[in-house]
Amino acid sequence: MNKSVFFGALAFTGLAAAGASAATLEDVQARGTLNCGVTTGVPGFAEPDADGVWQGFDVAVCRAVAAAVLGDPNAVEFVPTTGKTRFTSLASGEIDMLARNTTWTFSRDTDLKFDFTGVNYYDGQGFMVPADLGVSSATELDGATVCIQTGTTTELNLADYFRVNDMSYEPVPIETGAEAVQQFLAGACDVYTTDRSALAAQRAGFENPDDYTILPEVVSKEPLGPLVRHGDSEWFDIVKWTLYALIAAEEYGVTQENVEQLASEATDNPEVNRLLGTEGELGAMIGLNQTWAKDAIAAVGNYGEIFSTNIGEETAIGLARGLNAQYTDGGLIYAPPFR
Amino acid sequence: MTASDLQGADQGFRIGQLINDTRYRSITFQVITLILLVLGIGYLISNLLANLADLGQDLSYDFLAAPSGYDINQQPIPYDSQSTHLRATIVGALNTLIVAFLACVTATVLGVIAGVLRLSKNWIISKLMAVYVEAFRNIPVLIWIIIIFTVVANVFPQPRDFRGDDATASPIFGVVAATNRGVYVPRPYFTNGFGLSDEDAIAEVGDDAVAQAAAQGSVIDWLVILAVLIGSLLATRAITRWADRTQEKTGKRPTTWWMSLAAWILPITIVCWIMGLSWEIPELRGFNFQGGLLMRGSLIALWLALSIYTGAFIAENVRAGILAISKGQTEAAAALGLRPGRIMNLVILPQALRVIIPPLISQYLNITKNSSLAIAVGYMDLTATLGGITLNQTGRAIESILLLMLFYLTISLLISFFMNIYNNSVRLKER
Predict the structure, then answer these.
(1) Residue A196 has pLDDT above 60, yes or no
(2) Number of neighbouring beta carbons within 10 Å of residue A110
(3) How far is B342 from chain A (nearest CA, A)?
(4) Which of B55, B286, B389 sits opposite A155 (nearest CB)?
(5) Of A46, A331, B185, B318, which shows the fewest CB atoms inside 10 Å?
(6) In CATH, what number does A125-220 get?
(7) What are the chain A neighbours of B389 within 8 Å (beta carbons)?
(8) Under CATH, to which class is A22-122+223-329 assigned?
(9) Taking CA atoms, what residue in B is nearest to A183?
(10) B126-166 per-position pLDDT tens digit
(11) Smallest Cβ distance to A17: which of B47, B154, B181?
């Protein structure tokens, strides 16, 4: 008995010691796959398709990083995480990066020791109600029962919003978005609240989407973006600039279709040349090969293409670009210069 | 003193004896194992602290004093989003205790009934109970929790179905509203109690302090009720003892049932009348029913699932306890002229309890620990508040989990302690 306890302890120590390590890039390259944390399933953002292949807006970021680092957009191990498990997964080293519509907040960035690599979707929290409830504004929700995904910033925003407006409500906390939707559809709550992008995504999956309306109020700022562990700046740079490469590609008109041709020889746009590796040594500066950005864009397309194929207006989710348009079109999406 | 002892004393202690001498060998190995175990645990802890330091984190419980920022639906004590994480933790702990207590009571009742009936000579009843036991204890409790929750959410009507002239649903007897969000039942309160009533408090100023005083007043009212009930219990036991003494003296047992009944009913009725008991009926206002007591769907699901699941185990304990009493006892009692009911009460059950109580303790511990599955249906127990939202919002995983472990350990040890006291009182007295 005592002996087995001892050996158990030894085994546990081995596991614990294998935990955090600083050089994520070497780990990923040695492993040959990127471990990327995603949601347990939000249509348009991250969800396995009929063949079990993960698809979506956040998934594309994972694939772009895998393409840039490993040259293969399919060398990704997707790890589904809930609102509760995501930070532990990342902090413990189970995943190399988290691309799971996670809100960039001060305490997550500093106290939880993570680094947000940028924003890939500017969102805000909203409310969805059944249309026949006859509610047209969130200010009419006094006394309502509200379904909410537990462990998210929406939980805190909800408490703040009702307190500031001096309204009462009954929270129904639920572990995953899918269960929350089930409860909402069964009428166990009057209101379902989460980020407006996720509301639109989930509403698109309903049997009768028109029976439900999303209220006009946006009660919070929710900048969503990928994040990595604090303390590994090289890896942080790689994920950050891969995201910016996708954004810059849209700005300069580099698409999935023309990227091969543009990268085959130097063009007369030096910015595009530096981005695609036909000029300068940008790849070497972040420890990757010269074609890192070209590989990423060839794998998933530029930011605009990712947006329109996964969540854009032509898809069932039907989100407009809005704040997420390029800065040249009046949005907030902006990549620093590649030089 | 044996010969070898004398020899060892003569030659003095040699180091080789630690391995070769059977007197010392077991101690040597135990000491070595202990040292290795301490070193191993020490290494694990230092590894944890070193890794935390590498990540730039430390162990600190300061977060407990910060405002929690989230709301909790079931609040046994006043709480809002501006309260501290510590208060949220206490609310969660109380919710855990509430559901664990309710489930322990109903599981025991269910278990005893099912266990006794499974031994019934009636074929249908005994087979029905066998089906109950086998079906419920062989399916994971988490599944039962989710099944019941889903059934409640989908079968019962929504609150707005109760609205209007063509309402598709109506409250049972006009007072109990079973909705898919939970069951609203009338809430008893005292208009003439020792504290201010709620209406008075709101009518006077609507001030928080006054409302709190009213809440404290109603606590006093309920303590009075509890004291009266305990008094009634003591009175009925005194009546039974008096009946026993009379029986021993005269050989005839006086009829006591009406005395016991009066001891239960009269005092509580009088007290309720003096304090002005009335009922607050739930009414549909706005999105939900207002007023009355709400038993949320999550509480019902968790309570029912834990009760029927653990009840199946307790039924088997009860059956085992009864079967453990030899048939000779029943026959001897029957030979003395006792009727079957009296045989069960006076001869079988007191002896069966010795066998039933120890596994029953484990079942109570299981209920308390299984209640941590509450988050599956959004019941805000300790695992959902401290181990869920607080952990997530503050990122203090290790601190929160340590506190959680400490809480469950303390509660389990307390339950064991009190049940062991009870076990000592029913076990076989050896003379």
Answers:
(1) yes
(2) 12
(3) 48
(4) B389
(5) A331
(6) 3.40.190.10
(7) 150-151, 155, 173
(8) alpha beta
(9) B153
(10) 999 999 999 998 999 999 998 988 888 888 888 877 776 66
(11) B47
